Amino acid sequence: MSDQDKLKKINELIEKVDEMKKADKMDLSSDQDLSIAIMNLVSIEEHFFFTGAKTGKPEYYDMLQEVRAMRGDLLRKIVKNPEGEQWCISKHLLAASMRLMEVGTKQHKAGNQKEALELFEKSFDCYSLFWGINMDLIKTDDIKKIDEGAINVHDTEKKLARNTSRRDAGGGFLGKLGELVKKAVDCCLE
Does some domain include residue 190? Predict the structure, then answer.
């Protein structure tokens, strides 16, 4: 497949997302805000757990259950038809994204810019996978039949070397998925 054909297939995916946005099939601006809220609720669950364990006060576990129920209700607004482990995968991708972002922020503040950047990229990879799964951009039926760096069966471009920055060159599967998510999940568009 020529580079022109590869580019055409990626642009078709972007057009599909744009059409879905225009048809009001998804309000990604609100969904992005909601996904960040869900990340924070997962963190609050963790804090209630550790506070309960450290203080020995069981009321923190009760509050954890309240927050967990709220998080579940909100996650259902984004994860519409979970298949197999999709529900838990989605929750853990958001939780991992949040934690990697927090660790990256601490590394950035400590002056470790390179490590912070790597953590931020990993955080965005997790976030992009979350959206790729929940926007049905990743079709699990074809996963074993395609190159590990491809978005779908029409994408034949090979994955980049591990040490190549996705920001510079599009970055294989996660880089391509990230570009789609950046375009689709734009909180500044009303």
Answer: no
